Every structure is written in C-alpha cells, then in structure tokens.
What does this fold into?
Amino acid sequence: MSSPTRVLVLNSGSSSVKYQLLDMRDSSRLAVGLVERIGEQTSRLKHTCRVTGEMREQRAPIADHEAALKAVGEELHRDGLGLDSPELAAIGHRVVHGGMFFTEPTVIDDAVLAEIERLVPVAPLHNPANLTGIRTARALRPDLPQVAVFDTAFHTTMPESAARYAIDPKIADRYRIRRYGFHGTSHAYVSRQTARLLGKDPSEVNVIVLHLGNGASAAAVERGRCVDTSMGMTPLEGLVMGTRSGDLDPAVIFHLERVGGMSMDEVDTLLNKMSGLFGLCGDNDMREIRRRVDEGDEVARLAFDIYIHRIKKYIGAYYAVLGRVDAVVFTAGVGENAAPVREAAIGGLAGLGLEVDAGRNAVRGDGPRLISPDSARVAVAVVPTDEELEIATQTYALVEKSG
Ligand code: ADP
It folds into this structure.
C-alpha cells in the first residue's frame, strides 16, 4: 500500500476546535469545520465535506473537547474520511506558545507535552486549550504521529537585541520575560509566498509582513529569517488590534490600578478585550468601521487613523531594522480585504520607495498579487495567509522525514 498522505490540522481554543483535513499530494482540502461554544448548551458543529460539497450543521450540547473531537471524527466518518482511516498520516496541532525551547515543528511525546505544559504560565489563555486538544487526539489515535506546530517558532531567530526587554536580565530569565512573537506560522508562509511572487528565493529577499486580522502583528523578515516582530511576551504588544490596545506606556497600568482603582484582572480584560478598534469606536470589524468613516462618523475616523498611524510606525521601524526592503506585504482578514487600509498605510511613504497603484489595489482576488506600480522601488503585495496549509505542510514534512 502507498504511504498515507492525509493530515488533519487541529486548532483547539478554549471553547472551540477548528479543523481541516488535507491531502498532501496536492494540498487540497477534503473537509473543513468548526466546533463552537464547547461546554455550553448552545454548542454548534459546522462541517463541510469539500469532496462532495455537502455542508452539515449540528446544534446539540457538546460537553468538552473529547466530545468535540469525537463528533468531528463522526462527521469525517460519514464522508468516508474517518480518523481511523489508514490514509491519515498525522495530526498537526497549532500550539500558540513554544517559548525558546521549540524552534521547529516537533513530534509530540510525553516529554514534549510536559514542556508545553511548563509554558502555561506565560500563555495561560492559549496553551491549556492546545494541550487539551492534543491529549484528546492522542487518546483517539495513540498510534498516529501527532505534531505540534508553534506560533512562536518562526520568531526564535530574532537576535537578543530584538527579543529582550530592557529590564534586569536576572528578573527576565527567572520569569521567562522576553519577546516571543506570535502568528509565526502565518509570517513564515506569507514571507515565503512573497519571495515566490517576486520570482526569488526567500534567502534573497527582505520582507515586512503585516498580518492584519482581528489579532495583528508585523514582522521583519531578513533573507527568510525573522529578525523582529511586533507582538512580545504575549500577543498584547504592537499594532492596534480588534480588541487589544497594542503598544502602551506600561505606566498606564500602574495609573489605572493606583488612581483608577482597577484590579489587575480588570486591567487585563480592558487591554486585551475592550481596547483596540473596539475600545476606540465600539466596532472591531473593519467593514463596519469603513462604512461609518464613509458616512462621516468622526469617532470611527479617529479609530481608523490611530490604527493606520501605528502600522506606519512599524513599517518605518522595520525598514530601519532591515536596512533594505524588497516588499511590504499585507495579509489576514483586514490586510487581504481592506483596500482603504492598504492605501492609507502606504500613503505618504513614496520617499521610502513605497507606493500603491489605486487600480491594482481595488481589484479583489484570492491569490497573491502586487498592488504597487511597476515603477516602484519596493514591491507592495497582498498575499493571502493559509496557516492550516502551513501547519499541514510542516507536519507532513516532519512525518515523512522521521518515518
Ligand atoms: P482572526 O484570524 O485574527 O480572527 P481574520 O484574519 O479572520 O482574524 O480577520 C478578521 C477581520 O478581518 C474581521 O474582524 C474584519 O475586521 C476583517 N475583514 C474581513 N473581511 C473584510 C472585508 N471584506 N473588508 C474589510 N475587513 C474585513
């Protein structure tokens, strides 16, 4: 029998599981789906079989991740794609925090699980859910290779000068305080695809990647290696996001506690869940913000301007970090879809060789594309991200190598 070629990608959140089943012979999707509101009465499973085109939705309480994965397994089984299939080569898990230890995708064993567990204090919101997903999948298919692909891994090449905060290194080391960065799977995929779009090898180009989704981060990628990124010890640092403030004077936190009488948990919630675009104008969806801006809403306008100002600052900073830039690339929900964001972020940067061609920027499309004029010194591009494909690719490559 030929060797198995399917990879199931699992992205386990605290109350959700997103999954995709890919066939790595041609990177095609066989099935995609999502289980939401795990542990609530209103749980929902949405499943699409890409082979038959059939979509199914289940609304019944799903108590925990184990029940969720079992339900996913049953849905896949109905399409003849079950977890027990001999064609399944591996399961690839998205793991948010790999600390400094995990610099590449890793086959999961008990020691790896223990190390991911050790990182829970630095990623309390994410790693526990990722661990639950891994444990459940291992229990379902103990014989199958399971691979962890870390959001932080691509950033472990950052030099110490970019990764360290300017605090006492003894304190930093004791509490593992440093800049880890996130969205690494996306930055890795998008920077590689950008090189391909330019007809170059990744080792030949310097790229600034702007991953603008609900979470948002920028990365400076020098010859295929990340040298700086805007998220830090946690995803709170850097760009203005849907609900996160991004960069902030840390003294604001002391002030909120001492003068505002807020508890640390309240400040945490304020900065992570009630700030960013949402905090500024009450909306975190860029479509809605643009609609309001177009209607003359001044509050939405200011939120948009603050968002753009921060992006510009990072483009300038990473231009200086890299010294020479071949491309600035936009990706994720906002970056791929919001032409006004791209236009405003690049506007006024002709002195840096950055320009947007209005006609090209307005064209909607699914594939990688240039939006700068041919005459521009630096390419500006839109490259759709595909974290699931990247996780599947890395998982499959590792299993092939070790198998
Ligand atoms: P995440 O993976 O971080 O949840 P996404 O990368 O899916 O986020 O991006 C989601 C965001 O993309 C939405 O909150 C919205 O602001 C933005 N978005 C999606 N589609 C459009 C669009 N057509 N125009 C403008 N913004 C969009």
